């Protein structure tokens, strides 16, 4: 039943349903596969598809090779699964867009009800991988394994990490134990839950961690060894009611620092529907910044307090009177994930009390 949508070009925009669809992959079915599970691989670009001028060059261009070229570099996959490929986009994930997210979520939802498909792998740049994973958890509920994977070294590098990561991702996506856990992220052999995972290093292959809860498993060969179970049930937002991505609520992140002034917040509050404070410590900021955020809140801009520290919990009312100010506290969500949740939450309500409930249920 699967309809491939693999493009022979290198799209930087999401597919428009069938427009970009083209029948894909030699490995999609076939008599020699002896009942191997069918795994859909949705490619979006990233360093895992990146190419250098030479194998030792420190510069490269992310999102350069197609999903089929990428899979061809891992012939061992043939022993694991039949692969159905789709080139949803081909971008460095610093250029990931809400439009691509929407296209990706729509494909995950379609594949969820495809009886032929056992699991889904999304290849992605590492820079915003955690945001995409979190977004898919909110908008594309699936009982099937959904695994996001990237690489820190380009496909052409000496000792590229992409092939091993991809192999692990397909192995995980075919495994029953990965079902009903929402989006999982696999990097460098570690399995992380979408809610907790963060890119914590700008370089090196061990760049991902789950600072609050810890990784939830590791791959041992082709088998996952889970230490815990990820929360599959985020508060789900119906993709259809979100409308076109270009019209989604606009949410910006304000990064706190010593001597942060009000002017940047006042300027953003005039443009955005919501502001997330990546605050110092437990989501705090200068008096001037907090006063500006209160003005924004009073004007109807929803303000969420998160922390720039990278871990820990931002609770209501510890140092800032959230109830008086009408603020929402992000709990354990990073500022970048709080931005995603506020953006989709604002399609449902602008009431900070209701939004706090959504944050508390995440
Ligand atoms: C990107 O996020 O696309 C570039 C960095 C990477 O994938 O590691």
Topology record:
Layout: E1 38-45, E2 51-52, E3 60-61, H1 67-72, E4 82-91, H2 98-112, E5 117-123, H3 129-139, E6 146-149, H4 162-173, E7 183-187, E8 190-193, E9 198-199, E10 208-209, E11 217-220, E12 223-226, H5 239-242, E13 251-255, H6 263-269, E14 274-279, H7 287-298, E15 302-307, H8 322-325, E16 328-329, H9 335-345, H10 352-361
Parallel strand pairs: 1-4, 1-5, 5-6, 6-7, 13-14, 14-15, 15-16
Antiparallel strand pairs: 2-3, 7-8, 8-11, 9-10, 11-12
Helix pairs in contact: 2-3, 3-9, 6-7
The chain binds succinic acid.
Succinic acid binds at residues 46-47, 62, 92-94, 125-127, 150, 152.
State the strand order across the main sheet: 4-1-5-6-7-8-11-12
Bound molecules: succinic acid
In sequence order, what are the helices and strands, one letter per element? EEEHEHEHEHEEEEEEHEHEHEHEHH
- What is the class of the largest domain in the CATH system? Alpha Beta
* Cα-to-Cα separation, first versus last residue: 33 Å
The chain-level mean pLDDT equals 91
| Main sheet: strands, sense, barrel | 8 strands, mixed
**How many DSSP E strands?**
16
How many distinct domains?
2
Describe this structure in words.
25% of the residues lie in helices and 20% in strands. It is of the alpha/beta class and 362 residues long. The chain folds into two domains: 209 residues, Rossmann fold (3-Layer(aba) Sandwich); 112 residues, 3-Layer(aba) Sandwich (Rossmann fold), CATH 3.40.50.40. The strands form four sheets. Strands 4-1-5-6-7-8-11-12 form an eight-stranded mixed beta sheet, with helices on both faces. It is globular and about 60 Å long. About 7% of the residues have low confidence. Succinic acid binds next to loops.
């Amino acid at each position: 039943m699967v309809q491939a949508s693999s493009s022979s070009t290198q799209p930087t925009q999401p597919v428009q349903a069938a427009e970009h669809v083209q029948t894909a992959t030699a490995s999609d079915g076939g008599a020699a596969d002896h009942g191997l599970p069918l795994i859909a691989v949705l490619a979006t670009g990233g360093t895992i598809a990146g190419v250098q001028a030479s194998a030792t060059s420190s510069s490269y261009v992310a999102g350069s090779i197609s999903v089929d070229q990428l899979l061809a570099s891992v012939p061992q996959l043939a022993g694991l699964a039949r692969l159905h490929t789709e080139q949803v986009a081909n971008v460095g994930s610093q250029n990931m867009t809400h439009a691509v997210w929407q296209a990706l979520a729509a494909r995950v939802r379609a594949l969820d009800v495809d009886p032929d498909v056992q699991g889904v792998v999304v290849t992605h740049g590492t820079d915003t991988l955690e945001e995409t994973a979190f977004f898919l958890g909110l908008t594309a509920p699936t009982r099937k394994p959904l695994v996001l994977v990237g690489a820190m070294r380009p496909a052409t590098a000496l000792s590229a990490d992409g092939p091993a990561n991809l192999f692990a991702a397909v192995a995980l996506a075919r495994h029953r134990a990965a079902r009903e856990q929402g989006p999982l992220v696999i990097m460098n052999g570690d399995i992380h839950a979408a809610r907790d995972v963060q890119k914590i290093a700008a370089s090196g292959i061990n760049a991902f961690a789950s600072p609050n809860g810890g990784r939830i498993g590791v791959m041992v060969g082709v088998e996952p060894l889970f230490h815990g179970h990820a929360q599959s049930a985020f508060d789900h937002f119906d993709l259809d009611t979100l409308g076109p991505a270009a019209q989604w609520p606009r949410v910006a992140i304000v990064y706190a620092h010593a001597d942060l002034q009000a002017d940047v917040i006042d300027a953003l509050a005039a443009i955005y529907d919501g502001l997330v404070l990546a605050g110092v410590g437990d989501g705090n900021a200068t008096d001037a910044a907090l006063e500006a955020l209160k003005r924004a809140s009073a004007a109807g801009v929803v303000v969420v307090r998160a922390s720039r520290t990278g871990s820990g919990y931002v609770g209501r009312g510890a140092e800032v009177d959230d109830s008086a100010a009408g603020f929402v506290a992000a709990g354990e969500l990073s500022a970048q994930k709080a931005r995603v949740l506020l953006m989709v939450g604002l399609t449902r309500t602008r009431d900070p009390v209701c939004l706090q409930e959504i944050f508390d249920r995440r």
